[in-house]
Amino acid sequence: MNARVELKVGMTTTSTCAFLMLPGGEHLLTTEGECEVKASLEVASSLSEGVRLFARRLADAVNEGELVYMDELVALSFCAEAAAAITASVSRSIPESVEVQGGRQ
């Protein structure tokens, strides 16, 4: 389904989103609220692409018998979690009900 979503509200900023949970349950980092949505999504997209490329490189290295270090995996996980948190902060700022071409969703 290719629906065109038109936001009737001036949704241009993000909401906050905590991430990087520590063993005790508290979060180490939080995304900033009130950031520009377009710029935030560009950062999330760039991080996601970096994760994809790095994961592909690690997979190739393992297939060729090279070592993969735990810190590389932790860094990869951090970038993926940061991208997800940024995306969630944008998602949370979108109103529950948006006008979709031809009706409400």
Q: How does this model look, in words?
A:
This protein has 2 helices and 5 strands. It has 105 residues and is of the alpha+beta class. The protein has one domain. A 3-stranded antiparallel sheet has the order 1-4-5, with no helix packed on it. The chain has a two-stranded antiparallel ribbon with strand order 2-3. Helix 1 (37-63) packs antiparallel against helix 2. It is elongated. The chain starts with a strand and ends with a strand. The mean pLDDT is 86.
Count the helices. How many?
A: 2
N-to-C series of helices and strands: EEEHHEE
Number of self-contained structural domains: 1
- Low-confidence runs: none
Structural class: alpha+beta
Strand order in the sheet with the most strands = 1-4-5
**Arithmetic mean pLDDT:** 86
Q: How much of the residues is beta strand, in percent?
A: 15-25%
**Largest beta-sheet characterization:** 3 strands, antiparallel
Rg measurement, Å? 18 Å
Helix content: 40-55%
Organism: Pseudomonas schmalbachii
Protein name: DUF3077 domain-containing protein
